[in-house]
Amino acid sequence: KSSKYHQVHGDVSSHPASWRACCDDGHPFTDIIYEKAIGEGIAKITINRPERRNAFRPQTLNEMTRALNDARNDIEIGVIILTGKGNKAFCSGGDQSLRGSQGYSDHDSTGRLNVLDVQVQIRRLPKPVIAMVAGYAVGGGHVLHMVCDLTIAADNAVFGQTGPKVGSFDAGYGCSTMSRLIGTKRAREMWFLCRFYNAKEAMQMGLINTVVQLDKLEQETVKWSREILKNSPTAIRICKSALNAVDDGHAGLQELSGNATLLFYGSEEADEGKNAYLQRRRPDFSKFPRLP
Ligand code: S0N
């Protein structure tokens, strides 16, 4: 007979998710594929520049921002998977052919470093974002997987920073998050030597959550997503912001305390304040306990 815990929580199904392309708002995506799994609560953003090992350009990042906003605002979505098209790369960072003296430019001549906005967006998104990594996650692509909440890697995954070899660096989350993940000595090693590490090594370093066979990568990532989706969305939302709060300073505290406000608005006590204002009377908070 199975235990009560098992009866209540059970196993999650491992059937493949059924994806539907969505939400281009009349402006078709060119650099990403944006899909949702029907009835599942999972969104998937796939960087779609395999001929460049999924290097991002400003357009790629603008499209990612649109998709991440959509997933954030869709109350049916509870988990977002970020991945790269094909098996050769998750993402190889900024498109070096478009780098100029003021950042990256594609459709116009204005330079941009808008990957930084996407990093912040992932950190502040109140739903888990899972990096699903096959092949290379290097340079700015490595930073992208690090700012995701979880990383599930295929056995062909390769991780590393290349900046100091190619004349760039990410001194923001690229350094601070890495240092948190793998410790300051290892982080210095990764940035100073620019070595590449295989999935097993990355696992030992604490850079990623698990390694699976390449042909099981999506199945495993969907399984983790389903497991998360069985749990309390509010608890997960608050844990995510709490786990980021110290590192994100005032912005982290603001995010965390926004959750306190959100919960407070659902209380009778908060309603009393609002109703008294609307009814032009003094609020009566006397019945609310001053808990120890
Ligand atoms: C990924 C690597 C190791 C794959 O090697 P492989 O499999 O041998 O393939 P290749 O033959 O090298 O590549 C296939 C084709 O793809 C092109 N390509 C690959 N990566 C890029 C790229 N990043 N930009 C442009 N093109 C790329 C190749 O040129 C090749 O094309 P063809 O066939 O036409 O010759 C290997 O490809 C590799 O090492 N790639 C470069 C990795 C790299 O150095 N990335 C840039 C690192 N820097 C950043 O990402 C900085 C960005 C950033 O995050 C940031 C952070 C903070 C503040 C600002 C910024 C910022 O935006 O700058």
TrEMBL record:
Keyword Magnesium in record: no
Family: Belongs to the enoyl-CoA hydratase/isomerase family.
SUPFAM superfamilies tied to this protein: ClpP/crotonase (SSF52096)
Reaction equations catalysed: 2-succinylbenzoyl-CoA + H(+) = 1,4-dihydroxy-2-naphthoyl-CoA + H2O
Keywords on record: Lyase
The protein's name in its UniProt record: 1,4-dihydroxy-2-naphthoyl-CoA synthase
Gene Ontology process terms (BP): menaquinone biosynthetic process
GO molecular function: 1,4-dihydroxy-2-naphthoyl-CoA synthase activity
Any one GO CC term of the record: cytosol
Family matches, as InterPro entries: ClpP/crotonase-like_dom_sf, DHNA-CoA_synthase_MenB, Enoyl-CoA_hyd/isom_CS, Enoyl-CoA_hydra/iso, Enoyl-CoA_hydra_C
The EC number(s) this enzyme carries: 4.1.3.36
